[in-house]
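QA checklist item 7 of 12: single-chain prediction sanity check.
[x] sequence parsed
[x] length recorded as 202
[x] structure emitted
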Amino acid sequence: MGRTSGQVLSSGEAVDVAVGQRLRALRLARGLSLEKVAASTGVSIGFLSQVERGLSSPSLRMLALLADTLQTGLAGLFGGETQGPDDAIVTREQDRPNLWLWRAGITKQLLTPSGTAGGLSLFRTVLEPRASTGDDPFSHDGEEAGLVLEGDLVLTVESRTLRLVAGDSFRFASRRPHHFANPSATERTIVLWVNAIPANGA
C-alpha cells in the first residue's frame, strides 16, 4: 500500500526511500529505462517503480540482481563518498554507511571506502534473530567469502546447506545460487563478509 502525502515515515520507510533514490540515480546515470531493467532482472516494471519511489522494500536477492544490471557491486548501492585526507584508504568507524534491510532483519555495514573504484568490498553483516534472505536462492557476479564473528549462520549454496559457528569461514563463487539465515531465535549473527566482482572489461 502506498503512503499518503504528509504521512510521517518510520525509520525503515526512510531507508526504503533513500535506497530507491540511489537505485533511480544509478539507473538514469547508465541511461537505462525501467523497461530494460525489468527485462534484465525479471522483476515487473510496476514493482521497480515502487522500489525507486520508496514504496516497497527490496530484498537482498533483488538488490543483488539490480547491482548486476546497474554494473555495480552491492557497495555501489550505499551511496555517499569517502571524505578527508584518508580518502580511498581508510574508512573511519563513524563514517561507515549502512544498508538496512529492515524487513529481513539484516544490516550490511560497508567497511571499505565508498565511492571508489575497485571490485573488492568488505562488509560487517548483522543478522537479527531468525533473520533470513528468504527461501529463494539468488546469484550475482563475482565471488564472496566470510568469517563468522558471532552466532550461527546457516548457508545454503546450491544443494548444500551448511551450519557455521563463530570462527568458521567460507568462500564460493557468487554465481552459485545461495541464501543464508540466522537460525537462532534469541541471538544475533555477525559475519565479516567479502564481495569481489570482476572489473569492467575483465
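[x] summary fact logged: The chain has two domains: 11-77, 93-196.
[ ] second reviewer sign-off
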